[in-house]
Write a structure and sequence with these properties.
Layout: E1 18-22, E2 28-29, E3 39-46, E4 52-57
Protein name: Transcription initiation factor TFIIIB
Length: 66
């Protein structure tokens, strides 16, 4: 697996003031190939300009093919 660098700076405005957020309620990612439980979507957000720097699912194992 490729090593991923942790986001430390906004590529849009250059600010290093980043926060973490997530969708709430029914806004989850679900597997496309089958019906099943999804996962929360987590975002790293620039708190200066609002740009979403990165997004990922909290439980990636739910998307593996069986």
């Amino acid at each position: 697996m490729n090593r991923v660098e942790k986001a430390t700076e906004c590529p849009k405005c250059g600010s290093n003031e980043l926060g973490k957020g997530m969708h709430s309620g029914y806004a989850s990612m679900a597997p496309a190939e089958r019906f099943g439980l999804g996962s929360k979507i987590i975002y790293i957000i620039c708190t200066h300009c609002g740009f979403i720097v990165e997004g990922y699912v909290e439980q990636p194992k739910r998307f593996k093919k069986r």
